[in-house]
Amino acid sequence: xxxxKFSKEYLEETGVVQICPEDMIRLGLVAGDLVCIRAExxxxxxxxxxAKEKELPSGLLFMAYGDWSSRLMGSxxxxxxxxxxxxxxxxxxxxxxxxKD
Amino acid sequence: xxxxxxxxxxxxCTFCGCVCDDIELTVEGSHITKAKNACVLGxxxxxxxxxxxxxxxxxxxxxATVEEAVEEAARILVDAKFPIIYGLSDTTCxxxxxxxxxxxxxxxxxxxxxxxxxxxxxxxxQGVGEITCSLGEVRNRADLVIFWGSNPAESHPRHWGxxxxxxxxxxxPNGRKDRTVVLVxxxxxxxxxxxxxxxxxxxxxxxxxxxMLRALxxxxxxxxxxxxxxxxxxxxxxxxxxxxxxxxFGVLFFGMGLSMTRGKHLNVEAALxxxxxxxxxxxFYANPMRGHGNVTGADNVVSWQTGYPFGVNLGRGYPRxxxxxxxxxxxxxxxxxxxxxIIASDPMGNFSQAAREHLGSIxxxxxxxxxxxxxxxxxxxxxxxxxxxxxPGTVYRMDDVPIPLRPAFESPYPSDEKxxxxxxxxxxxxxxxxLQVSN
Lengths: 101, 439
What we know:
Chain A has 101 residues and is of the alpha+beta class. Chain A has helices at residues 8-14, 21-26, 67-71; strands at residues 17-19, 34-39, 42-50, 91-94. Chain A contains three helices and four strands. Chain B folds into two domains: 53-117 and 293-388 and 413-438, Rossmann fold (3-Layer(aba) Sandwich), CATH 3.40.50; 119-288, Dimethylsulfoxide Reductase, domain 2 (3-Layer(aba) Sandwich). In chain B, strands 5-4-17-16-15-6-7-13-14 form a nine-stranded mixed sheet.
């Protein structure tokens, strides 16, 4: 972030979702797989990585605050000025690559 | 002259809310080559700083003179029916003060990044009261330190070493050995291994757990069934309550795990109420972990000038405060604002999609030290010098203590304050001309 918000490091850090290793196995995911995350009417496609051992419990995802996480955020602030940006319900599915014949 | 070597003692790091003012910078020309005492974030802040290149001012992407850009910016603001001003957490108090004056002249809504950070905490302070102390008191007295919904190991690396857990203080002479450190979070973050007790609660259960702690502090009976789905057991909470009542000086530092999650200000109110209740037994405080280098200063400056910390509308000639109505996410997502000025923040990079789309559709002015998504889409943009590295002034540490800045070297770019002062002058000029025409 100090260098630039367009730097490779910043874009990589904010452009990935962390999933607990057990969930990665259960869903047949490997690091770098593209997943679709849906929250209400909003959705993004983003690569995934396994979180560090025991850092995340099953069912909990982590994304660093930035462009991609904000795309999942609603605009209703419930009278506070702050939309819900943590602890929101999302659906996650693996994005299957289109097979070319 | 270009490569003259100098050492700046007691320089202030403005990367995070800790605002460490004991940094020793070695400066060669316009490069900082060493930042002694700085943490990993502070080192990145100082050592990666580049003097920058490119024009100071742009109008719709094209290079312009500062005078032309100031004139165009003033015209946009004066012609607007519902102008909004947003940002301010990464600039000096002196620049913030001029910004409030501009907002007052043009009848704008003025809002800071607090509204998408600890804004709900500001609302909770009004509801319960702020049970606060300085970080110096924590350093010298605290024997129980609780972090709730924050991850200081990664977000405020020197908080522990300089203020809260490690230092040897007047009444905690053995430092870390004299303190108990508790971490409460939904994630086992990098901070967890350094805590004595880690409570991993379920997401969105902060309010429930805090309220149960209040009940236990009051001596009410709680059953295990009351804690279903919270992720913690009755024994864990009873153990924590015993420690909270028995400590000599306890402090609960809360992060955006409380203020950004459902419940928001109610979560923070629960934390503040818990700290207030504990003062029947001992000394206990609750302080927010603030993020940006001068976000606390923004709260202070906007408060002392308008009476309210953020989300203030000056459209009627007097200040009105209403989060949800005058806060920036809302005025943008509801498509109410017809012009904006963004200072030292990047809403185009981290606001909701609806807010971003509307901001992209209205003329706005952006001041920033670096290129961002927000400066790229601005009608008028200014590249400014970095506070703390190039610009002197005052910032507020997260515990509301003002700290002076000791810059390392001069920038080819002007300060935010200089641009804003020129803008205020031009705004006044245009307003006077408008008044003469209408008379």
